[in-house]
Amino acid sequence: MDLVLEWLVIVVAIGIGWWLGRLQRKTQVHVEAAPRKHRYPKAFHYLFDAYDSPTLDSFIQTLPVNRDTIHLHLALANYFRRKGEIEKSTSIHQSLLSHPEAKSTFSDRITFELAQDYMAAGLYDRAESLFLELSLSREWKESAVDRLLEIYEHEKDWGIARDKALVLDLKRNRKTQVRVAHYCCEMAERALRRQDLGEARHLLKEALGYDRYSVRVSLLTARLLMLQEAWDEALTELKRLEQQDALFLVEAIPLIQEACAKLSDPQKRLRILQRIWGLQPSSRTMVALALAIAEASGNNNEAIEFLLGQLDEHPTLGGVRALLTLLMPFAESEPQRWIQIIKGVLDSLLEKSQAYCCTQCGFAGRHLHWQCPSCKSWSTIKPVPWS
Length: 387
Ligand SMILES: [Zn+2]
Known about the structure:
By secondary structure, the chain is mainly α. It has helices at 3-27, 42-49, 53-62, 70-82, 86-97, 100-120, 124-134, 141-154, 158-165, 174-193, 197-210, 215-227, 231-239, 241-244, 249-262, 266-279, 283-297, 301-313, 317-327, 333-352, and strands at 356-358, 364-365, 381-383. The longest helix is centred in the first third of the chain and has 25 residues, at 3-27.
């Protein structure tokens, strides 16, 4: 590398660090800023991208530690962590914590960044102990608890996650209310699996207190009621989805079908599916309604007419598969064999279809996740009506 250029970049970098330090001293009452408020200038990253790792290593070793350069050290460590070079970022933060001037004025910020390094390295125990320490600080409490929740979510410690989230002011934070409601739902699902209906009911009531629009609470409450053979009450509970989020009505269809079968009431099933179809048409509702029409009418003709009419407008794989199923009894033995083959092909295509999508990051998948596996947001994955 050209020596003049290298020196020039060092001078520019120190200049930016000095300017940033000066600006912060002018504008901040407190010495340290909360992490969400702090943004490293993009210029740092463009600058670092221009150099290879050994050059940046030499640079950081020769860079003095003082109030004017501390942000440059932190920015460089952050850059290394983003690139996956966790050992380097950890080493910079540990070294800063051993420096008296950095420690006396930026201790909490550096500790927070070090804990983030530990998280990135998968050292959750170490990260947890640092975040717990920071959660006692008024200024860092919110950010530290947010990271602690990420750790407890990763470890599926839902009870600990709920208790820790409750130290935050939930009234001001709708996102955390939704998050805590899901922690209660996770625990309620565990209780349902071990047939502890009393505990499940208690947890679902608690979840509703945090998020009264939770579709997950309604679906789980309906399951709970069905375990108690309260079929009509379960159907009433599922009706709440109409107000909460009609897109999720499709998730209620298997429960509706089971409840109506237990009630031996195919007409009720038909009426409910027709209502859902009117409120929120979808591929899966179309198929369920066609099969319900066939069962209620006692023959397939009406259901075939319904599907042919809808497939013109919404040509979906599920709809075509249902149509073939209804046509099967009318076919001769040889065409029946062809229909079976085509249905097999459609089944394998349907297995690959993406019925759910995250409204936050665009993640798409075959199954419903209450927490997006990609962006980790809660309640952002929705059913795709025409998948
Ligand atoms: Zn997402």
